[in-house]
Predict the 3D structure of the following.
Amino acid sequence: MIVEIHPSSPGLSAGQPLAGVDCKSLTEHQDQRGSFTEVFQQYWSTCLTPTQWSLVRSEPNVFRGMHLHQRHDEYFCLIEGHCLVGLYDARPDSPTRNQWALYELFGTDLKAIVFPRGLLHGWYFFTPSVHLQAVSESFVDYGHDDNHGCRWDDPDLGITWGITDPILSDRANSFPPLRHLLADLANAAPSS
């Protein structure tokens, strides 16, 4: 797994993990019958208390994201295939604000990434892939008012995806630039 962690703003140090993000190595126990792997444990003490689990299949060259949720935390585990997971810290009070991280994951080397609300996130699939995803708020509850996004290739994100022309949903094709998303979120925030 290759992990790149970079600041997008001067004065921030590169190489430190984004605040609140956990990348867990999973142990696959194999024998003549197959294998068994624990994919989540409460004792990990992550930010996530899962409410909904989903199994997602993606075709090659598919990009999902960049999404941002302000009310729920997430879990991502690639079960089969090869992908990139990109995170950008958009939390105003975070010590790693404006930094990004890029993880390369393989289904043959199981890892789980758990991250808190307020991080823009997206995943790109090189091959046919299957991943598990969990959230701390059910989709029926956040689907309309807490499902924000920005352009995956916005230069202000600074994420070096190394890809061109991925397959996007119609919604992701219409996402605004990062600066517009952040301005909209700031304008919608309750004043103190």
